[in-house]
Specification:
Layout: H1 20-39, H2 46-53, H3 57-85, H4 87-104, H5 111-121, H6 127-138, H7 144-176, H8 181-206, H9 215-220, H10 230-238, H11 241-272, H12 276-288, H13 293-332, H14 337-358, H15 370-393, H16 398-412, H17 423-467
Helix pairs in contact: 1-4, 1-6, 1-7, 1-8, 3-4, 3-5, 3-6, 3-15, 4-5, 4-6, 4-8, 6-7, 6-15, 7-8, 7-12, 7-13, 7-14, 10-15, 11-12, 11-14, 11-15, 11-16, 12-14, 13-14, 13-16, 13-17
Length: 471
């Protein structure tokens, strides 16, 4: 069943939070931002943690791998959960339960306990799937690519913001309040966990599952498939080869972003002799590109879709991944900061555009199992990060590891040509696209007509007042 009353415009209604679609859009990107911030909150403080817990390079490598490994399973599960109970309840529970290990990592006294909490924190990375799911059910085909890309991109900003905010928060704890470094990084994580918990409560009260109501109500009205069909649809989606192609492709873009978020601060400290705060600011430039880069990927995905249909979206995805791989190889060979930084920014641009391009394709793979597709593809990002993490765990030069990843990403880009759609689906989605655009034009025409009527009424009132003789 197709959900109705999806929003056909994003930017023209951007501040109209009375619309449930727009309110949900803002809540979901902010929730994802907070989760991403918490997920990688410990990464820019790893040099302090390394000194206190006396971690070896091998143990740091395991921490990097652990931080993204659990997310694979969490994303697979959360996609099924969204189809079953809806994104509103799914996000609420994820935020509330996910806040516990974020605060709990402050209790770590050994490598084993630190690794345990680092793995558990990775569960909140499943928030990405709910974010993409929620915007997909709220927005029509003509804008779903940019809605998905913007909500995810602004959420991913958390990975960049945390790179400089956490060192500053740590400095406030140590310098401002006089705590020791060992206590400062722990208190910083407790603050972040508390914020995540409060956002979870807010999400429940400020959003709803779909434009016409929550899933429980829609099922009672016969507007949504029964819960018992969710698992069957999920298994059917897993048999679709295109889902697994996108799984690999997303590992080649989002997986790389996760890896860079984990290692960037240490990389610039160790290879460019930067301080903790300076390395954090440089590393943050990679994540901060999410402010617009992922949105660009979604916008161009929608534009390619309007010109060449679903195959146009797939071709745009190929272009983004291909140039991401080339840019990563270039970045790996930069050994002075004034060359490495611009190379990092260009690499970041294509990486995040590729992520937006991927999720401009995802909503069209299987609408009956949207959660399954979003979850599996999202899990691919973390699977890619786990595999990439082993390169940084081994005793090889990190610049060499980046070069190897660049080659892998470039080769993976050609898989995008395997994402194909039947002629019937191409025609159906073309019709849906046109219909959504017509709705947008009708809404603009109604708004213009209303403004014209108001203007004519004001003119008539002015003329009427002018014709009244002065007393």
């Amino acid at each position: 069943m197709e959900l109705q009353n999806k929003a056909t415009a994003l930017w023209s209604n951007f501040l109209n939070v009375k619309m449930v679609q727009i309110r949900t859009f803002h809540m979901t990107w902010f929730a994802f931002f907070s989760c991403f911030f918490a997920w990688f909150g410990i990464a820019p403080l790893m040099s302090v943690v390394r000194d206190e817990l006396k971690l070896t390079p091998d143990q740091i490598g395991w921490a990097i791998i652990g931080s993204v490994s659990m997310t694979i399973f969490a994303r697979l599960f959360i996609g099924w959960l969204c189809d079953r109970i809806g994104p509103r309840k799914s996000y609420t529970w994820l935020l509330i339960l996910g806040s516990l290990p974020v605060m709990g990592i402050g209790l770590a006294q050994t490598f084993e306990t630190f690794l345990l909490f680092r793995v558990l924190i990775g569960c909140i990375g499943a928030s990405f799937v709910i974010t993409q799911y929620h915007t997909s059910v709220m927005f029509a085909p003509n804008v779903v690519g940019q809605a998905n890309a913007t909500s995810a991109g602004w959420g991913n900003l958390g990975g960049g913001v945390t790179q400089f905010v956490m060192p500053l928060l740590f400095s406030v704890m140590v310098v401002g309040f006089g705590f020791s470094e060992a206590v400062g990084w722990r208190l910083s994580m407790i603050v972040v966990g508390t914020i995540i918990f409060l956002i979870g409560i807010g999400y429940y009260f400020l959003t709803q599952d779909a434009p016409d109501g929550n899933f429980d109500d829609l099922r009672a009205q016969g507007k949504l498939e029964a819960k018992k069909k969710v698992t069957g649809n999920y298994m059917h989606a897993l048999k679709d080869g295109r889902v697994w192609v996108l799984f690999v492709i997303y590992g080649a873009c989002f997986g790389i972003e996760l890896t860079v978020n984990n290692v960037a601060a240490l990389y610039f400290m160790d290879y460019f002799d930067l301080t903790l705060v300076t390395a954090g600011f440089v590393a943050a430039s990679f994540g901060l590109m999410n402010l617009f880069a992922r949105t660009l990927g979604g916008i161009f995905g929608d534009n390619f879709g309007s010109l060449w249909g679903l195959r146009g979206r797939a071709f745009w995805l190929f272009m983004c991944i291909f140039f991401e791989g080339c840019a990563l190889m270039v970045f790996s060979q930069m050994h002075v900061l004034f060359l490495a930084l611009p190379a990092l920014i260009v690499f970041s641009l294509f990486t995040q555009m590729a992520e937006g391009a991927t999720y401009s394709v995802v909503p069209f793979i299987n609408k009956k199992a949207l959660g399954a597709v979003a979850g599996v593809v999202g899990a691919g990002g973390n699977a890619g990060a786990v595999l990439a993490g082993f390169l940084f765990k081994n005793v090889i030069d990190w610049s060499e590891a980046f070069f190897i990843l660049g080659i892998i990403v470039t080769v993976a880009s050609f898989l995008a040509f395997l994402v194909r759609f039947s002629p019937e689906q191409e025609e159906e989605e073309k019709a849906n696209f046109v219909e959504a655009n017509i709705e947008t034009l009708r809404a603009r025409a109604d708004k213009s007509m209303g403004e014209l009527e108001e203007a004519l009424a004001l003119i008539e009132k002015r003329n009427r007042n002018a014709s009244i003789p002065a007393q």
